[in-house]
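Full entry
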Amino acid sequence: MRIRSWLLSVSVSLVAAGAWAHHGWSSYDAAKVVKIEAPLSDVRYRNPHVEVGVDYQGARWNVILAPISRMESRGLPASTLPAGKVVTIEGYPRSDGTHELRAERITVDDKTVELR
């Protein structure tokens, strides 16, 4: 019985952690579109969303892309986004002024991909 209780506790903790990590989009300003053309500083090709870093207006911006499955199904596997690759990203900045962008589309090698 103790093992079942322990397993249930661990399961609930993991689900809660996953839910917390997957944020909503209400903290982004959909009325303000930002367009960045810059080389990728770093790439984190992982779930729940692929994230990249770019330098823009003197600051490092974290850019939230799409989940891996959507990136791959739309033709952007990890190999297409190496650090140093120049891309164009359009999206919405965080409302609180944090240097983070929710990307709506990305252009890589003259190919534009809608992410939502």
The radius of gyration is 17 Å.
